[in-house]
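Batch manifest, entry 17 of 40.
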Amino acid sequence: MAAPTGTQAHTDGGVLRYRPEQRAVQDRFDSRRIADRINERLARATIDDAARAFIAACDMCFLATADADGVPTCSYKGGDPGFVKVLDERTLALPSYDGNGMFLSIGNVLANPAVGLLFVDFAGGGRLRVQGRAAVEEGPLLRSWTGAQLALRVTVTAVFPNCNRYVHRLVPAERSPYVPRRGHQPPVPGWKRAAWAHDALPAADPARRGGS
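Output type: structure tokens
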């Protein structure tokens, strides 16, 4: 699975807006020209067919968010291939499955909608970045995924590939049995059975009901 190359030229100067601090580092290392070239040639404001196919083949991504004070967090999101859905050329959506109950990413989005997503193909080495603004969904879109608690709808502002030279090549051993699937009851994760956690779980959690 190769990352989109984004070779079509743009005439609007690109969609990324470099801040003065970024420019200062670019100038220190004489990389302003290549930074501008990447912005002009590779960055897009929409999801094209190549990016759509890359996202559809991915079974994981990293989601970066920040709270109202700018304190960031980065979360791993995994599922079956295609769990991140491209709704149209400017919109994608992803599920929020059962996790540790902290809801750091969801809570951050409620306070600060700016998000960044990084898709990585560890087998082939491709990488794709998506930047946008997210909103929490509980309506009909949520029914697109089995077992999702909430969903995020992301309005895309920038899509661009990343250099893949530092991506370690990894061969997937197996897909996670914890991913919700139609007709499949995910097992209870071991940490939920631990003494420190069990009595603090939500009342409806399967681990408190003696789930498998």
